[in-house]
Design goal:
- By secondary structure, the protein is of the alpha/beta class.
- It has two domains: about 140 residues, Rossmann fold (3-Layer(aba) Sandwich), CATH 3.40.50.1370; about 150 residues, Rossmann fold, CATH 3.40.50.1370.
- Helix content is about 35%, strand content about 15%.
- It has eleven helices and nine strands.
- The strands form two sheets. Strands 7-6-5-8-9 form a five-stranded parallel sheet. It has a four-stranded parallel sheet with strand order 2-1-3-4.
- The longest helix has 19 residues.
Length: about 300
């Protein structure tokens, strides 16, 4: 690991340089070795208090962060909006200020409002880690996706990565796009025109509405969940029609996908919609490896924002 981490928070991939992204990936590679040991704990965050504050529901991200904190020997407090004073009318800022007054060091927050983390970070000395904000940003998911690609393919520069699905509503897609472009990948996005607007070309990606064309040269195919909870009706006629046109099944894999291409999904999977179970569980799938790598990435992020690298 080289360089110095100078950021108090992790708010967005957009805010990171290529060097900072690589620093997180390199740090995660070291922490992944810890998870492969018989004793899986290190004292990197001993004496630090981490608050997991999830205003929006989460399962895998919350559990991954909590396990990462345990592996780093942190003291952990879990909070949910349903059991916090937000229910009584307290503002988000007042809630955060009260958490800070209890001598918390790091706040891992998920919130439904885009930009909530940026606002909070300006008003607290606690390190803020974005665990997802609306349809805007999900930096640790993008980092674990990119880490998995680098681990399997050796480098990101020059990789052809195709992202399929609901780009419009996806914080995962935006974060992946920012990170991949900064590291020199070629990114193509595809899906129905209503959820893959042509305007995304302004980000530097290729927009394609033909699935077969979009995946034929792909080294990595990352499928996104159809987000029913973020959509108004009418983006496409039916889930069945989406699956028939943009779903990845055995026939698509056999005819149009390179044999060494990786198949990824951030989860949770709508099986039979984005991809069939045989593909999700098939030889080219690295979906469960993404989950494993998420633990290493979150350990790395928590370590860095705690000032760990600067204390070496």
């Amino acid at each position: 690991m080289r360089g110095t981490w100078n950021k108090k928070d992790l708010l967005s991939i957009y805010d990171l340089s290529a060097e900072e992204i690589n620093m997180i990936l390199d740090t995660a590679a070291e922490f992944k070795k810890v998870s492969e040991r018989k004793v899986k704990k290190v004292p990197a965050l001993r004496g630090k208090t981490v608050v997991n504050f999830f205003v929006e529901p989460s399962t895998r991200t919350r559990v991954s962060f909590e396990l990462a904190e345990q592996r780093l020997s942190a003291d952990i407090i879990n909070m949910a909006a349903s059991s916090s004073s937000l229910k009584k009318g307290e503002t988000l800022l007042d809630t955060i200020k009260n958490i800070e007054a209890l001598q918390a060091d790091i706040i891992v927050m998920r919130h439904s409002t885009p930009g909530a983390h940026d606002f909070i970070s300006k008003h607290t000395n606690c390190a803020i880690v974005n665990a997802g904000d609306g349809a805007h940003s999900h930096p640790t998911q993008a980092l674990l996706d990119i880490f998995t690609m680098r681990e399997k393919k050796g480098a990101i520069e020059g990789l052809n990565v195709t992202i399929i699905g609901d780009i419009l509503h996806s914080r995962v897609a935006r974060s992946n796009i920012w990170g991949l472009l900064k590291l020199g990948a070629n990114v193509t996005i595809t899906g129905p025109a209503t959820i893959v607007p042509k305007e995304f070309e302004e980000c530097g990606v290729q927009v394609c509405y033909d699935l077969k064309e979009a995946i034929k040269d792909a080294d990595v195919i990352n499928l996104l969940r159809i987000q029913h909870e973020r959509q108004n009706s009418g983006f496409f006629p039916s889930v069945g029609e989406y699956a028939s046109v943009f779903g990845v099944n055995d026939e698509v894999v056999e005819k149009y996908i390179k044999k060494d291409a990786l198949i990824m999904h951030p989860g949770p999977i709508n099986r039979g919609v984005e991809l069939d179970s045989s593909v999700a569980d098939g030889d080219q799938s690295v979906i469960l490896e993404q989950v494993t790598n998420g633990l290493a990435i979150r350990m790395a992020v928590l370590f860095l924002v705690s000032g760990g690298l600067n204390n070496d």
